[in-house]
Amino acid sequence: MQGMRRLFLFVCGFALFSAASGSAQESLLPKQFQNWRLTSCAPKAADATFGTETGERGFESCEFTSSDKTVGISVGQFHDPSSAFEIYTSRLRPGMMPANLGQVAAFDKDGVLILEGTLVLSSTANISRDDLSALVKAMEAKSERSPLPPIRTYLPAGGRLLGSERYALGPAAFREALDKLGESEMARLVPAAGFSDNAEAMMARYTTGANGSGVLLLLEYPTPNLAEQYIHHLDEVLTPEQKAKGTTIERKGSVLSMVLSPSSPAFAKSLRESTDYETKVTWNEASQTATDPPILTVLQKIFIGTGIFMIAAVVLGVAFGGVRVLTKRFFPGKVFDRPEQIEVLQLGLSGKRIDPSDFY
User: Fold this and answer.
1) Does any domain span residue 1?
2) Which of 148, 168, 201 marks a domain boundary?
3) Total-model pTM
4) Do the domain assignments include residue 8?
């Protein structure tokens, strides 16, 4: 019994130690950065409306103090940078300006939003850029940084309303993006977009004053064949009235583009054509540059080749003739020029018979 009790206590102690270690490892925010010190944290809770879709792995909301100032900072960690970018864009507010922090960042008078790898940080506005930079640097080891989705770079810059950008890699984020951009009636696109085949969506609102407005939607697929397949699914969803107003689908490679609620078909066409995406073919086979050798090198090789052939001809001629002469000297009439095998046609114009051996 005493042994069993000790084993039980050991197992419980080890479990408590492991839990404490796991809790320490799960902490995302540092206890201090620059002059800011952690004072309190709210209970952990789901941070995303579509947390299941983005694979949320952790969330913290804490307060930091420095002198007489207090700032609230929250951070969420997600499955991968694409999932984090989906969350980042879902929290953008209209008018937020880009900031040079982390991989991407935006700010306004109400606060700052930063994406770094798999982490998405948000902070209230009463903190300096240098302090935020120090915070991001302190969290780099936990960020699992890698490139963000390329589709975000396909949106044209001209006429885009800052803070309206939305990225979606699943139906929940796609539906919410349509709602926030005032395109709730286009929710019928969700089941036809092909997220089950790893489609990615990027959209933003555009306006050019009195000339036009609309929401540019880009859908990227793993292959051009899939993109061509989903053109037909999406086209069946659009109504004739929407098509007449300019909401038509265009494909470039593996990317589909359409303009939702365009002010005119001409504006929709212009906006689709301004998409910053071009197909590229890469030829990676090894190659070399052909160049003509110097003329002296060419002449030298010609003379050398001709000389080799001349020497070979002389050697072979001497060998052939020499063998014949030696054979006739040492074996006369036995190998070459044997009288019984030499015949000469005679016309009989004279009475003297020709001796064939006279010719040799």
Assistant:
1) no
2) 148
3) 0.70
4) no
Are 173 and 58 part of one and the same domain?
no
Query: Can you give the residue range of the structural domain that contains 206?
Result: 150-278
Q: What is the pLDDT along the chain (360 residues), one digit of tens a residue?
A: 444 455 444 445 444 444 444 444 457 889 999 899 999 988 766 555 676 788 888 888 899 999 888 999 999 899 899 999 999 999 999 999 999 999 999 999 999 999 999 999 999 888 899 999 999 999 988 888 899 999 999 999 989 999 999 999 999 999 999 999 999 999 999 999 999 999 999 999 999 877 789 999 999 999 999 999 999 999 999 999 999 999 999 999 999 999 999 999 999 999 999 998 876 656 666 666 667 788 888 899 999 999 999 999 999 988 888 887 887 777 776 766 666 666 666 666 666 666 655 554
Mark residue 117 as left, alpha or beta (left: phi above 0; alpha: psi -120 to 50; beta: remaining): left
Q: Looking at the structure, tell me whether residues 218 and 117 fall in a common domain.
A: no
Angle between the N-to-C axes of helices 171-180 and 81-90, in degrees from 0 to 180, rounded to the nearest 10: 20
- Locate 140 and state its tokens: 């780099």
Distance CA 230, CA 235 (A): 8
